[in-house]
Design brief:
Blueprint: E1 2-5, E2 12-15, H1 25-43, H2 47-64, H3 72-78, H4 83-93, H5 104-116, E3 118-122, H6 127-137, E4 146-147, H7 149-152, H8 159-175, E5 186-190, H9 193-202, E6 206-209, H10 213-216, H11 219-223
Parallel strand pairs: 2-3, 2-5, 3-4, 5-6
Antiparallel strand pairs: 1-6
Helix pairs in contact: 1-2, 1-4
Bound molecules: magnesium ion.
Length: 224
């Protein structure tokens, strides 16, 4: 766990989902591969051929952009698949419950955090599969709202999903008669610095980088 900053007036957590609230290599792979297989099917090429095209494109992109990674959505876009189409594939093809199960340790940890803080998720998956993921691990009730790829049609690390998360947290706090919430009151938790932490820190939030869900189990010890 790497703690970058913990806000002095902490009121809310913004969690990434994939490889943060669960750690599962097979599911992480499937999230990408189900779309690549669908792309292959529609192009009339083999799955292996499509996997090769994606790998080659990513290698070329990194070489031309100082090692930067390109999202799968933008890779498929380069092959002529609109973002709306790949969002739809993710909605239809992802079945988190085939890979993930209830996580009692995480449920207990989020129960502790929820007593003092509001919780929200920001993810680059559409809201529907993200919700199914939270349901599969048993933590859906802790997150009344998810900001997903189809909320603002912008993927992290864009500003919009994080701004939307802060707005929604603030609205829900006000509805419950609490003070509004601003970026300075939020703590972002995720497994990828560039996607989940860098921009929140620039916005004035706190940030904690985790290597997987095992480190999320320990978070209350760092903040309470
Ligand atoms: Mg992640």
């Amino acid at each position: 766990m790497k703690i970058y900053k913990i806000p002095s007036d902490l009121r809310a957590f913004i969690f990434d989902i994939d490889s943060t609230l669960y750690t599962n290599q097979a599911y992480a792979f499937e999230q990408v591969d189900c779309q690549v297989r669908q792309f292959a099917k529609e192009r009339g090429i083999s799955a292996d051929e499509a996997r090769r095209m994606v790998a080659d494109y990513r290698k070329k992109f990194a070489a031309e952009h100082e090692g930067s990674k390109v999202s799968l959505g933008n890779t498929l876009l380069a092959f002529g698949v609109p973002i709306e189409q790949s969002v739809q594939w993710r909605r239809e093809l992802l079945e988190p419950a085939d890979f993930l199960g209830r996580d009692e340790t995480l449920i207990a940890e989020l129960g502790i955090l929820q007593e003092k803080y509001q919780l929200i998720c920001v993810t680059n998956n559409p809201v529907l599969p993200a919700r199914k993921t939270l349901e599969a691990i048993g933590v859906s009730d802790f997150f009344p709202e998810i900001v997903g790829l189809d909320t603002c049609f912008k993927s992290k690390p864009a500003l919009e999903p994080f701004e939307t998360a802060v707005e929604r947290l603030s609205k829900s706090a006000c509805e419950r008669g609490l003070e509004g919430i601003s970026a300075e009151n939020c703590l972002a938790v995720g497994d990828r610095y560039d996607m989940d932490i860098k921009l929140p820190l620039e916005m004035g939030m706190g940030g904690i980088l985790v290597s997987g869900v095992e480190e999320v189990y320990q978070i209350h010890k760092s903040v309470l």
